[in-house]
TrEMBL record:
Residues 307-385 form the Secretion system C-terminal sorting domain. The lineage of its organism: Bacteria, Pseudomonadati, Bacteroidota, Flavobacteriia, Flavobacteriales. Residues 1-19 form the signal peptide. It holds the Pfam family Por_Secre_tail. The keyword ATP-binding does not apply. Keywords: Signal. It comes from Chryseobacterium pennae. InterPro entries: Secre_tail (IPR026444). The keyword Signal applies. This is T9SS C-terminal target domain-containing protein.
Length: 389
């Protein structure tokens, strides 16, 4: 639910080997109601907007995943890829694409930020009724397992969007219920739990940042939402409509009402205003980062050192280094979940820079830990990945 119950469109990502963009937003027009304007990159360190990737006026080519051909959409309906009522966005790190849903529609779309081509994912799992705000999908994020998850306003649908054989598959995982301890801070009622956005942690839990400023921790296994607390340090009338994790592991929130961005410490729920633009109308945020992601044992940020994607469909990962303190030969090790070393490869860093594909040899589908150590043997990054066929 955005713009009090539900805001607008979306955020998108583009990542390349030389310069990684990893934070995007659905921006809206300055109107009383939701009105999609564009997808744009965000500089959340400085609280400013970047490049506009795709706009409401952009020419679009929509291809049906089911029919494997171009489809013509009614631009005056809620069921189109540039509908004014956008409220849910996630980043698919396996393809560097943006996945999103119009709020009044069951359609799922995948935008390629480079080619601007859009894929329509038809599905029978989503049950959205345009006149029922409870059913609107307004929260979406990529889980640490590489799948994309989405929830409607009242928690009666919790969706998993996975990829099998190059095709997106949608499953309804069930109903998210209130934890018994929530009391008056219900996850399922309009005043306390509707709308906003959600982020994921490294244990594949999700945190829903409701429009009210309330925060709920959602367990995928138990399908329960536990009230964590209310964000402190934001204005009383601040509508929380977008949330995403930055490279430092903090949560950035945004509002559809025209307001600055805030950075929130999930441990304390204390917010601090970010510098930069003060009148942004943001309806959703997305990034590639996770809370409590123990990817680094030193002070290097994920923009300096990274291994991606976390969901590996093409049998390789990209290793990115951009830090002068990392020198010479580094060693990449891959461990299975039992701790067995199943692969080792030496890499060479020149002038603090490296962008290289590392191909896996004979690894079966499953979860692994990829570890990189510097010349002294000190581990400088650990990252969990999921290898799929």
């Amino acid at each position: 639910m955005k713009k009090h119950l539900f805001p607008l469109f979306l955020l998108f990502l583009g990542i390349n080997a030389q310069a990684q963009q990893d934070f995007f937003a659905i921006a809206g027009k300055d109107t009383p109601s939701i009105n999609f304007s564009d997808f744009r990159a965000m500089d959340v360190m400085n609280g400013t907007s970047g490049e506009k990737i795709f706009t409401a006026e952009s020419s679009s080519k929509v291809i049906s995943q089911t029919r494997r051909g171009v489809v013509t959409e009614d631009k005056n309906s809620f069921n189109n890829s540039q509908a004014v009522t956008m409220a849910a966005l996630a980043y698919d790190s396996s393809s560097n694409n943006l996945v999103y849903m119009p709020m009044f529609s069951s359609n799922i779309y995948v935008l390629n930020p480079q080619t601007k081509e859009i894929t329509l994912i038809e599905n029978n799992a989503v049950r959205v009724t345009s006149c029922d705000i409870n059913s609107h999908i307004t929260r979406m994020a990529t889980g640490y397992d590489g799948n994309i998850y989405a929830a409607n306003n009242s928690g009666t649908q919790f969706l998993q969007i996975s990829k099998k054989g190059g095709q997106y598959v949608v499953n309804d995982l069930g109903i998210i219920k209130d934890d018994a301890s929530n009391g008056k801070n219900s996850f399922t009622t309009l005043e306390t739990g509707f709308g906003g956005d959600m982020i994921a942690d490294a244990d594949n839990n999700f945190y829903v940042f409701a429009a009210s400023g309330n925060v709920f921790k959602v367990s995928v296994k138990e399908l329960k939402a536990k009230f964590v607390g209310k964000i402190a340090g934001i204005p009383d009338n601040y509508s929380v409509n977008g949330s995403a994790v930055n490279a430092q592991g903090k949560v950035v929130i945004a509002s559809a009402k025209g307001a600055p961005l805030y950075e929130v410490d999930l441990a304390t729920l204390q917010a601090k205003q970010l510098p930069g633009e003060q009148n942004l109308h943001i309806y959703d945020l997305a990034s590639k980062y996770f809370v409590n992601d123990r990817t680094s044992s030193n002070s290097l940020s994920l923009t300096d050192l990274d291994i991606y994607p976390t969901r590996v469909d093409e049998q390789f990962v990209n290793v990115h280094v951009n830090n002068k303190s990392v020198k010479g030969n580094i060693k990449l090790n891959v461990f299975d979940m039992s701790g067995k070393n199943v692969m080792t490869q030496n890499l060479s860093v020149k002038d603090g820079s490296l962008d290289q594909k590392v191909y896996f040899k004979g690894l079966i589908s499953g979860a692994y830990i990829v570890s990189i150590a510097d010349e002294s043997g000190k581990v400088i990054i650990n990252k969990k990945i999921l290898v799929t066929q």
